[in-house]
Amino acid sequence: MFKVETFQDPATYFNSLNFGENEIHLAPVTALSVVLKEKAKRHNIKPPILTYDKLNELFYPQWNHPLVKIFLSSRMRHYLQQLSPYSPALIKSLDSQVEEIVDSFRFAVELGVKDFPLENNGNPTEKAVQELFNQIFKDVQIQAILKERENVDKTRLCEVVGLPRIRALYAYNFSRVNAAVMLFFHRCRKWGIPVIFRIPYYEQYPGVSHPWKELYEKVTLTSCDTWHHTGQAQINRGTNFLNYLEGINDQDSSDELELNILSYPSPINFKHFLSCENNRPRRGEMQYCAFSTDLLNKSMRDVIKPPGEEGAEDQDNLINYPIGKFFFFLYECKKQNQNIYLSYDLFVECMTSGWTEAAGVSGTQAISLLKDLEPYMEGITSIAEIKERLHKVQELKEVSGVFDSLAKDQTQRNRVKRYLCNPFSVFPYTRSDRYPVTIKQLIRITEEMERNMQQLLPEDGQEIPVKDHLKALKQLWDTIKDSGQHTQTISQRIEKAVNFSVPDDWTAVPYELRRYLLILLNLVQNIETRDDTEQEIHSLEQLAGLILETEKLHITDLSAKSMLNYVNSTDTMPLHLTHTRLREILERQYPAETHKLLCHCLYVDYTYNQNKESFLKFIVFYTLCFFTGKSLSISWINDFNEYDDASVFIKILSSLYIPQGKPKVWQIKKDQTGLTADDSNPGPVHYELTKLQDKLPTISWLDLDFCPRKFFYSSIIKSHPEYRSDFHQQLVFAGLGSLLRQQANGRQDIRSHLYPLFPQWTDALKENLIATSYYRDFRKYQQFQNISYPKAMDSIQRLRSKYAKKYKIKKAYNNDANYDQDWLKEFATQVSPDNVEATPGYHCTMCPHQLLCKEGEFAIDRNAGTS
C-alpha cells in the first residue's frame, strides 16, 4: 500500500536529500517545509513543498475559508435555537459548545459522513447534536459548500500543486496522522500516486522508536522489518536522557549535551527576559517553542514584536492597534430597545479607537479626560447614563467656574490662589485647561458614537445580514479615513476588509460579526496562512524544523499543567464523536470495501491518540540529540498557571544535566547606581529653593509634616493636590459638605445643590460621608497675601491623614504662624539632584500620589509586615 523510508540523523539526511521532477513534498509543520525549501534551492527545479494544512486549503478553498467556518457556527447556532423538545438548560449548554460542535461536524464531513442516524437509546445531548447535524446537512447554503468536496480527483490535485502529473508524494515526519489525513493518503494511492513516508526511526533504541513503529505499522499494514532503513547514526549528545527513555540507569559521562535549564519566578520575569534585545525571537538566530503557544504569544506580543517596528503593520493582527481594537470591543456592547448598554471601560476603548469624530474633534483626543472621569462614571451601564453623567460634570464645572469668576480679580492667573478660593479645583475634571477636549465636545462625540452604534448593532439576540453590516462600517469608515490618524498600510487593510464581498444570505449575531471582522482585517495580509512567522513563540511540533535552522533554541512553558493541557489538545477525535460511533455510521452509508478503508483511517487515528504522550517524549529526545545550533535551553514559568509545578521533563533533565538537580532561577536585574570615589561622601548641596519663600500658603506646607515627596508633588510640581481615586473624592466631598452645611439653609441646600453634582454615589452614602466628617468652623480664616481662605480647608489638603511624630507645621497653622524660611531649609536637606526623600507611613493611604511613589505604603504592606 505505502512505502516507508527511515532516517536517524536529520541534518545529514536532509542535506543529502534529492529532489526530482513532478514530486510533491509534504511536511506537517511550517518550520520543516522551510528547511525543505532551503535544501531544494541547490537543485534547478522547484518542486511543490508545502504543509498538509496548506495543501488542504488549496484543495478545498471554500470549505477551509475562515469565513465559512464562522458561517457554519452561525447556522449551527440558528438551528440550535429551533431544536425541540429539549430543555432550555441543554440548549444553553450546547450553545456554549458551538465551536466544538462545528469541529465535530467538519471532522465527520471530511471523513465522508453524509448524515447521522438518530439513536433511540442515546442520551438527550447526543440526540440533540445528531439532530443538529442532520439539520445542517439539509441546509441549502451548506449543501452548496459541500459540493466542492465531491469534485476532487488526481487532475484537481495536479492543478492545485501546479504539476502536469505527479510521480510521487513524499510525506516527512508525520506523527499526528488523524483520520482525515489518512483518507487523503488513501485517495492519492487510489489515484495511482505512490506515497512514501519519510520518518525518523531508531531500531537500536526500541523505547524511543516505539510510537513510530506502532503508528506506521498501522498506517502501512506492514512490519517495520520491510521498511527501507538508512545506516545508524552516532549519537553524542543527549545520551543520558536517551538512556533514561530506554530504561538504562547508567550515567553516560561522554554525553556532550550542554543544556541550560531555567525557571522564571513569574510571567513578568519571563517578559523581562524576552525584552532583552539578544533574547527576542529572530529567524535563524533565536527561536522559542512552548506548550501554551497562543496564550504566550498574546501575553508577550508587545515585547516579541513591539508596535511600530518595521513591517509590524503588515504582519501584526490589527486588533493590536487602536483603530483595530474597535472591532473587538464594539460587539461587547448590547442594543436593547434602541438603547446601547455597555460598561465604562468598553465606552473608553471604543471612544479612543479613532472611529468616532464630531465637529473635527476625535475621541482619541479625550483619553486623559476619560481616564480622570473614571471614578465619576462608577456604576454606569449605558450610553444614556454616560451622557447624563457628562451633563452633571458640566454643571459641576460651571459651579467651579462661579467660584473662579467671583475671585478672579484677587487670584489673577495664580493657581495657588485659585485653589484657596475654589476647593472644587481638586477634582481634575473641573479644569478646562488640562485637556485638549472640553466636556461639551465630549458630549457631542458621545452622541455621535451612540448614533454609529445604533446603525451598526442589531437588537440583542437578533441577526443581521453580514453584507449590510459591512456596508454600514464602510459608510462610517468613509467619514474618518482621511483624518490623518492612520498610516497608509493600516488604512488599506481596513479599506479592503469593509469592502469584502460576502453572500447576501449570510446573517450573524454580534458575537459572530466580531469573528467575521477579525478574520477580514487579517485575511488581507494572509496572516492565517503565511509560511514564515519568525517573530513568535512556536508550538512544539515546529521543533522538527527549528532544530536544523536555529542558532539558539529555547523551549519554555514546560510546566505540569501546560503539558497536560497540550496533550489533551492534541487529541484528534473532537467532542461528541467517538471512533466506534463513526465506524457504525459509515458502515450504514458505504459498501464493504469503502467502509473497510474508512475504518482503517479511524484505526490509524485511534493509534495516534494512544501514542501521543510517547510522541511528546520523542520530540524532546529528537531535540536534545540532533539540535545543530549553538545554544539549547529549556525552562518553565512559575504562576503562568494556577497551582502549577515544573513538568516531569524539567525534573528529569535537571537531575541528569545539573549537578544541583534544580533549574537556575532567572531574576530581574535591579538597576544599580554606583558612586565614584569622589562622590562616596558628598558634601552638602545647596539649591535655589529660596525662590519658594513667600510663594506658598501655610496650608500647602502641611504636607511636609507627613512626607517631603508628597509636598514636592502637590505644591511644587503642581499648585495644589488633585484627587483621582473614588475613595479620595468621597473624602473631599465629605469635607466640602461639612463646610457648606454651615452656610444659609445648611443641609437642605447641599442636598438640593451639591448632591446632584455627584450622581455616582447614593444619597445614603453622601449623608454618611458628611455625618462622619469632623466638624470644622467655616468662619475661621487664614491669610495668604491678598487671599483669605477658611482654615477648615486643611481637611481637603490632607484629607484624614493621621499625624505621627511631626506636627510642627500643623501647630504653626493652627496658630496662624508661618515659618516658611525654616521649612525651606528643612526641605532642602531632603532633596538631592535626582530624588526627593519619601517618608512612608499610614498617611500614604490619603496621598493622591500613592500609585506613583515607589516607596508608597499600602495597607497590605503593613499587614504583611506585622505578620
Summarize the structure.
By secondary structure, this protein is of the alpha/beta class.
Number of helices: 38
Helicity range: 40-55%
Terminal CA distance reads 72 Å
Strand segment count: 22
Number of domains: 5
**Percentage beta strand:** 5-15%
Give a short account of the largest sheet: 6 strands, parallel
Please, what is the average pLDDT?
Answer: 89
Cα-atom radius of gyration: 35 Å
Q: What structural category arises from helix and sheet content? A: alpha/beta
List low-pLDDT spans: 526-533, 671-687
Shape: elongated
Strand order of the largest sheet: 3-2-4-5-1-6
What does this structure look like?
The structure is a single chain. The chain is α/β, with parallel strands linked by helices and 867 residues long. It folds into five domains: 3-60 and 152-234, Rossmann fold; 66-150, no CATH class; 259-305 and 535-665, Rossmann fold, CATH 3.40.50; 318-529; 689-866, no CATH class. Helix content is 47%, strand content 9%. The protein contains 38 helices and 22 strands. A six-stranded parallel beta sheet has the order 3-2-4-5-1-6, with helices on both faces. Strand 21 (831-832) and strand 22 (835-836) form a beta hairpin. The longest helix has 35 residues, at 592-626. It is elongated and about 105 Å long. Mean pLDDT is 89; it is low at 526-533 and 671-687.
